[in-house]
Amino acid sequence: MAVRAGVKPEEFWAMTLRDSFLVIDGYLFQAEAEYTRSVQSAWLTAALARQKRLPSLGSLLNKSKLIERTAKPHAERDAEARKIAAEIAPGLSIMEDSDG
After folding, report:
1. CA gap 60, 75 in Å, rounded
2. How many CB atoms lie within 10 A of CB 72?
3. Cα dihedral 55→57→61→65 (10° resolution)
4. What CA–CA distance (Å, rounded) separates 47 from 23?
5. DSSP states of 9-64 as a string?
6. CA pseudo-torsion sign 74, 78, 79, 81
7. How many of the other CB atoms lie within 10 Å of CB of 46?
8. Distance between CA 73 and CA 71 in Å, rounded?
9. In whole angstroms, what is the distance from residue 40 CA to residue 57 CA?
10. 11-27 burial, b if ≥16 CB within 10 A, otherwise e?
11. CB atoms within 10 A of CB 66
């Protein structure tokens, strides 16, 4: 997983467990965002191909609605990172952050 996230082996072995979680969390977030963009693009292309009259460009570029639909709660991303960590190091206890 670290290699997929762009981490070199020597960097990986120098990381703390927390650093590894952050890298994995960032990678998962980026991969999910890319997938979401691809699906939205395919859906929009198919939907627009069926339209008799195209909607205005302004309505298609409304970013606030897109951000609402694609934003993923931090707690959910944290749970995914903990699940991956449990698979990597079973039985390892992960402490909660004191700041969040």
Report:
1. 30
2. 13
3. -20
4. 36
5. HHHHHHS-HHHHHHHHHHHHHHHHHHHHHHHHHHHHHHHHHT-SSPPPHHHHT-HH
6. positive
7. 9
8. 7
9. 16
10. eeeeeeeeebbebbbeb
11. 14
Instruction: Tell me if 61 sits within 8 A of 40, measured CB to CB.
Output: no
Question: Over the stretch 58-91, which tens digit does the pLDDT of each residue have?
Answer: 877 776 665 655 566 777 777 887 888 777 777 6
| pLDDT tens by residue, 4-34 | 778 888 888 888 888 888 888 888 888 899 9
